[in-house]
Each structure stands twice: as C-alpha cells, then as structure tokens.
Write a structure and sequence with these properties.
The chain is α+β, with helices and mostly antiparallel strands. It folds into 2 domains: 6-97, Nucleic acid-binding proteins (OB fold (Dihydrolipoamide Acetyltransferase, E2P)), CATH 2.40.50.140; 109-290, Hypothetical protein af1432. The chain is built from 12 helices and 7 strands. The protein has helices spanning 57-63, 109-122, 126-136, 139-147, 161-177, 185-194, 199-202, 213-217, 219-234, 244-256, 272-295, 321-332, and strands at 16-30, 36-44, 47-53, 69-79, 82-92, 203-204, 210-211. The chain has a 5-stranded mixed β-barrel. It is elongated and about 75 Å long. It starts with 15 loop residues before the first strand and ends with a helix.
Length: 333
C-alpha cells in the first residue's frame, strides 16, 4: 500500500524512503567523468518529481521502464529549491491501486453512476430511453465510461472526470428545461447524457491521461456520432425503428455542442435544445476552470492567478484566505 506521495516528500528531506511510484520518463545521460546515470521522472496522483540513479545502472535500467509502477528505495535530496530522489534500488510492482498514481475525482463514482441512471429514468420518450439504456446498461461500457477523463488538461482531467462532467451538464439542462416549457425535455436530457460519449474512445488514462490514436485522428464528436449511429441501427426492430427526425436531432446535439466551428463543431447549434446543451457544456467546463484556479493558487498572498491559457485571461482570486481570516478575527475583538 502506498504511504508517501510526491506532495509530501518535502517532509522526508535527507531521509531514506521506500514506496511506490510511476515511472513517467527515463533517459540515460552522461556524468562529467563520462559515465552514465539515469535521469528519471517519478509521479503519482499528486504530482511528479525528478529522480536519478548513479549506481547499479544496468540492474536499475531493467526495472525502471516508462509507464511501469515500481517500488523505490532511495534518499530524498534537496538542492536549492528542487526536491529529488537518489534511487538506490528499484523493483517492478504489479499489484497496485491505479488511483494512487493517476488523479481521480474527489466525488463518489458509484453515487454518480446512480444519479446518472436516475436521470435516464426521467426520459419518457421510448426511443431515446432505449438508446440511453443500450449504452449505460452495458456493464463493460459503464466500466470504461465511469473511469474515463473528460479532457487531457483543461477541465475534469482525471479518472471519473467524464462521468462527473456529464452528470453536471445533465443536471444543468434539467434545471434550464424546467424554466422553459418550449424545450423538448427528453431530447435535451438524452443529448446531455450522450454529448461526450466519444471520449470513452478518445482518451486513455494509464499510465497517463492522453489521447488515443483514434482520439487524435477523429476526435470525440466524430467518434460519438458513430457510436450513436451504431446503436440506432441496432434498434431497427425496436417499435418499427428509430424515427428519422429524432435521429437527426439527437445527432445534431452531439456534433454541435462545442458551439462554434473554430471550437471543433462541424455545425453551430440550430435547435433550441442544441443551443442549451452548448451553454450547459461550456458553463460546466468554465466553472471548473475558475474553481481550479483558486484551488491551485501558488502564492498564498496573491489576489490573481497566473495567466491561464485555457481561459485566455487572469482570474481574480480575491483576498487571501489567511488575510481574510485575520481581518475577521480583528473585528471580533
């Protein structure tokens, strides 16, 4: 069982540790005397750290393979501000919990799965409900869906992120639909549940969150379109087959939800439900980015984030928490 995480290594400076890490990268480099050393990056769910091997190069080279979880014995060093590990011994490990090494949602995945199914039960249209159940009642598919990230970096980029984002978007759509009677509720909720379904194929999450070959070449909009079309074709004997107009509308929701051509959608939203879905999807991702900016405040005394490329702006973080707390305490006395 893993006990020591990257974020805690500062507490072990000049101490020997023995624990499990993921080998994120490894390169052979030359020392000043001409000999080899191994330049390694180790990681876990909390971050990454440089590490080096100066002794037993060949033995350790066999154990330290990129993408493998290894048991490390070594010394935690500090040079100026950099923390690193001098590895003395490394051995491969096959028995591990993936969530120790890959960032994971803080929310209860099983609870979110239940909430997702409750939203499916809200859909009364028999064709849309059957379509949803053919995806989300498939045990193998759900195992993949509930573990998938929603992105590589920008938002919900962790195990369970796709499920979390999908549920957020769906519940935003439920709320919006309750305010406008003109909305086709079943169509909107089905579209929300299916809008990012292609990300199951677009992303892999171990040994790191990254795009798959099909994800890079096609993207989740095309993948999702094809996945839904396959299920609709399979429904040819269900109540006379999936209605053509309903098929066009659900597919339109999926391929237009990015909202703009420059954001990756081949068409802009052209129905009320598609426009709402785009707003809900964009809202959830942007809200996550603002919350994350505050969570990752590097300077505890700064009122501003660093420049965020994902938002193309700085984010105002407000009064530092400790300063705010002190001023409140002063008022009490």
């Amino acid at each position: 069982m893993k006990r020591i995480y990257v974020k805690n290594l500062r507490d072990y400076i000049n101490s020997e540790i023995e624990d499990y890490f993921l080998v994120a990268s490894i390169k052979t480099r030359k020392k000043r005397d001409g000999g080899d050393f191994l330049d390694v990056t180790l990681s876990d769910a909390t971050g990454s750290i440089p590490a080096r091997v100066f002794d037993n190069i060949e033995d350790n080279r066999l154990s330290l393979r990129e993408g493998m979880v290894v048991k490390i014995r070594g010394i935690v060093d500090q040079f100026r501000e950099e923390i690193s590990i001098k590895i003395n011994e490394a051995s491969p490990e096959d028995n591990f919990d993936i969530t120790d090494f890959i960032p994971t949602t803080s929310k209860d995945i099983d609870r979110m799965v239940l909430d997702l199914h409750r939203n499916i039960e809200r859909v009364s249209n028999p064709y849309l409900r059957e379509l949803l159940k053919r995806f989300f009642n498939d045990v193998e598919f759900m195992e993949r869906f509930k573990m998938a990230p929603a992105a590589k970096a920008n938002h919900h980029a962790y195990i369970g992120g796709l499920l979390e984002h999908t549920l957020n978007v769906t519940e935003l759509c439920v709320s919006i639909a309750s305010r406008y009677r003109e909305v086709n509720f079943d169509l909107l909720i089905a579209g929300a549940l299916l809008h990012d379904i292609g990300k199951v194929e677009e992303y892999t999450y171990f040994p790191k969150i990254d795009r798959t070959d099909i994800g890079r070449l096609l993207g989740h909009l095309v993948i999702g379109y094809e996945m839904i079309m396959r299920k609709i074709r399979e429904m040819k004997n269900f109540r006379g087959g999936f209605p053509e107009d309903l098929k066009l509308q659900i597919l339109h929701l999926v391929i237009s939800h990015h909202g703009e051509l420059e954001w990756g959608s081949p068409v802009r939203p052209m129905t009320l439900e598609a426009q709402i879905l785009h707003f809900a999807d964009n809202m959830d991702s942007k809200v996550w980015m603002f919350i994350d900016a505050k969570r990752k405040r590097r300077d505890p005394f700064s009122r501003w984030s660093e420049y965020l490329q994902s938002l193309k702006r700085y984010v105002y973080l407000g009064e530092p928490e400790n300063e705010h707390t002190e001023s409140e305490n002063e008022e009490l006395f």
